[in-house]
Specification:
By secondary structure, the chain is of the alpha/beta class. It has one domain: Dihydrofolate Reductase, subunit A (3-Layer(aba) Sandwich), CATH 3.40.430.10. It has 7 helices and 14 strands. The strands form 2 sheets. Strands 2-1-13-14-11-3-10-6-7-8-9 form an 11-stranded mixed β-sheet, sandwiched between helices. Strand 7, helix 4 and strand 8 form a beta-alpha-beta unit. It is globular. The termini are far apart. It binds NADP nicotinamide-adenine-dinucleotide phosphate. The site of NADP nicotinamide-adenine-dinucleotide phosphate has 26 residues, from strand 3, strand 5, helix 2 and helix 7. NADP nicotinamide-adenine-dinucleotide phosphate (NAP) binds next to strand 3, strand 5, helix 2 and helix 7.
Length: 290
C-alpha cells in the first residue's frame, strides 16, 4: 500500500475528479487561485472547517461550558492548507468570540501569515501575486465586547468592525473613538451576509476568507454568499456528548446544496488515521447586490 508519509512534500492522492493521481500537498490549495475568482461587485467568499467522521468541529467541556478544539482534530497537513487559503485572501472575517479566545490564550493567533519559517513561502507568494503583505481583518460582532489584539495594527492590517444597526451605541462610539471603521451590515444586532459582502466589495476586497465559526458560516450560507467550502474530514470518531457542528441554525433546505469540486486523500495524517480534503462549490450563490 502507501508508505508512511509525513513530510509536507510527500504526495497525497487525488480521488476526484478523475484520473486518480498522486499530487503534492504543498501548493494544493494555492493552485485554486481563489484571489482571482471574485470581483468588487461579487467578491468570492470561502470557508474552511475540519470535522470528525461523527460530525464534530469542537467539543464542549461540561465543567466550564467552554468549547475547545480537541488536539487530534487538527494536523500539520490540514494547517498548511488552512494557511494556503489564508494566503489567497485579501480580507479575513473573524469574530468577537475568536478575539476573546485569543486574549484568554485558548486559541493561537492566525490573523497574520508568513511570519515564521513554515509559512514564509506564503508571504513571498502573496508578494508575487500582487496581494498586500497581510490581509485586511473584519471582526464580526453583535456584542462589540472583545479585546483588540495589538498584532493587527503592528502588522499594518486594515481593520473593520462589522455589526448590525441596532448595536449598542456606546460600544459603537468606543470603537470609533479608537480609530476603527465600523461597517453596519444588518437590520438588528447581527451581521447579515449579503450587506457585509457588498460593503467589502465596495471597499475593494475580492477574496474573503471566513476565519470564523459556524454562526458566521450560517450567516453567509443563508444569504447565498458562500462560494466554496473547504472541508477536511478527519477519519476519527471523536465522541463527546456536547459538541458543535459546521452549521448551527434551523434546517437549511436547497441553500445547503453543494457540488463536490475535488477530493483528496491524505492516508497518513493524523497519526493512526487519515483524512479527506474535500472542496465543494455552492449551488445557490447570489450576487450580493441582488
Ligand atoms: N473545527 C473547525 O474547523 C472549527 C472552525 C471554527 C470554529 N471551531 C470551533 O467551534 C467552536 C464554536 O465556534 P466559534 O467560537 O467560532 O463560535 P460561533 O458561535 O460561530 O461565533 C461566535 C461569535 O461570533 C460572532 N458572530 C457570529 N455570527 C455573527 C453575526 N452574524 N453577526 C455578528 N456577530 C456574529 C459573535 O460574537 P459576539 O459575541 O462578539 O457578538 C459570536 O459570539 C469553537 O470552539 C471554535 O474553536 C472549529
Amino acid at each position: 500500500m502507501f508508505p508512511f508519509m509525513n513530510a509536507m512534500t510527500e504526495p497525497i492522492l487525488r480521488l476526484y475528479p478523475p484520473p486518480f493521481a498522486e499530487v503534492s500537498l504543498q501548493g494544493l490549495y494555492l493552485g485554486q487561485r481563489l484571489h482571482r475568482l471574485g470581483t468588487r461587485k461579487s467578491p468570492f467568499v470561502y470557508a474552511n472547517f475540519v470535522a470528525s467522521l461523527d460530525g464534530r468541529i469542537a467539543l464542549e467541556d461540561p465543567a466550564t461550558g467552554k468549547t475547545y478544539l480537541p488536539k487530534s482534530l487538527t494536523s500539520p497537513h490540514d494547517f498548511r492548507l488552512f494557511l494556503e487559503l489564508e494566503a489567497q485572501a485579501d480580507c479575513l472575517i473573524t469574530h468577537g468570540g475568536y478575539l476573546r479566545a485569543l486574549a484568554d490564550k485558548d486559541l493561537g493567533n492566525v490573523l497574520q501569515l508568513g511570519l515564521d519559517a513554515e509559512s514564509r513561502d506564503l508571504a513571498e507568494w502573496r508578494k508575487t501575486e500582487g496581494l498586500t503583505p497581510q490581509p485586511a481583518v473584519v471582526i464580526a460582532s453583535a456584542s462589540l465586547d472583545f479585546p483588540m489584539p495589538p498584532s493587527i495594527r503592528e502588522n499594518g492590517q486594515a481593520c473593520y468592525i462589522a455589526t448590525g444597526r441596532n448595536a449598542d451605541p456606546a460600544r459603537l462610539e468606543y470603537w470609533r473613538s479608537e480609530g476603527y471603521d465600523v461597517i453596519l451590515a444588518g437590520r438588528d444586532r447581527m451581521v447579515e451576509g449579503a450587506p457585509l459582502v457588498r460593503k467589502l466589495g465596495d471597499l475593494g476586497y475580492r477574496s474573503i476568507y471566513l476565519l470564523a465559526g459556524p454562526s458566521m458560516l450560517d450567516t453567509m450560507v443563508r444569504d447565498g454568499q458562500l462560494g466554496r467550502l473547504f472541508q477536511t474530514i478527519t477519519h476519527q470518531l471523536l465522541g463527546g456528548a456536547d459538541f458543535r457542528t459546521v452549521l448551527p441554525g434551523p434546517e437549511l433546505g436547497p441553500a445547503g446544496c453543494l457540488k463536490l469540486r475535488s477530493l483528496y486523500y491524505d492516508p497518513t495524517s493524523p497519526a493512526g488515521a487519515g483524512q479527506w480534503f474535500a472542496q465543494f462549490d455552492s449551488a445557490s450563490i447570489k450576487p450580493p447586490h441582488e
